[in-house]
Amino acid sequence: MVGAFHGHAHNRKCQLDWHPVAFHRHQSIKEHFAFWDADKYAALSNFLHNHYREATCVIRTLEAELSVIKSKLNLNDGDFVKFYDDEKLYLDTLKQLPIQDRLCIRYVEVLDDLEICQEEWSAARSAANNALTTIQNAEALVAHMEIQLSIEECWAVGSPDYLQFKEEAALGKYRAALNELEHLVVMRLFELSKLSLSSTGYKLHQQIRKALQHCSEAIRNAINRYNMQAAALSPPHLKLSWKDIADYSFLGEFDLLCYSRTNI
């Protein structure tokens, strides 16, 4: 088979005579597979011949070695059949454990579950004992307070006496937060007054500024605690911000002190 443009290299007539029409293509394909089959049959014959010779050589060699092994170990052909059956049975048993082994494994799993349940029960019992001890201590403390206050019948939650002193307790927390805030505000006012003195030196001036920075942070925290306690009152008291405190120049401007226990 010659390419369609072969003739351009040397002769136009060559291209016309050998142009690959349908007949030429079919003929080329048929010849290709015919020669390919012949080559494959020849190669297959060589393949079979070579492997047959190799197999017969291996059989002769292994038969000789097997005879030596049978003689040394006192075996016969029936033993090899038995070995085959034993190996097959062993491989079959690997698919699933014997029933006794499976029961033992399940027993171990159940023992582990039991141990976990016992630990959980022990922890729950310990927590219950601790809660019971806490309740008993609280009951004993209530009884002791009732003796001190000569209370014959325990106050019910929500009773008038309970609500009265519940409010007083909230006021106590509020006043404690207010007293802390008052203390810090007074310290800040004193430090500010020192800054305005003409006799204050540069080093002392710097120390006072650092002290005011620390005091300002403490005042912010105290304001947060105060606002939390002020919101818990009934009715709630007004909340404070840092701007409210920063605007105070004199203690008399701190009008929240009128709500303290001393009622300044």
Topology:
Blueprint: H1 12-17, H2 22-73, H3 77-93, H4 99-149, H5 160-195, H6 202-231, H7 242-246
Helix pairs in contact: 5-6
Can you walk me through this structure?
By secondary structure, the chain is an all-alpha fold. It has helices spanning 12-17, 22-73, 77-93, 99-149, 160-195, 202-231, 242-246. Helix 5 runs antiparallel to helix 6. The mean pLDDT is 79.
Shape: elongated
How much of the polypeptide forms β-strand, as a percent range?
A: under 5%
Please state the oligomeric state of the protein chains shown.
Answer: single chain
Low-pLDDT runs: none
Q: Could you give the order of the helices and strands? A: HHHHHHH
Radius of gyration, in Å, reads 53 Å
Structural class: mainly alpha
Overall pLDDT: 79
Overall number of strands: 0
N-C termini distance: 123 Å
Tell me the number of helical segments per DSSP (H or I, 4 or more residues long).
7
- Percentage of helical residues? over 70%
For the report, how would you describe the main beta sheet?
Answer: none
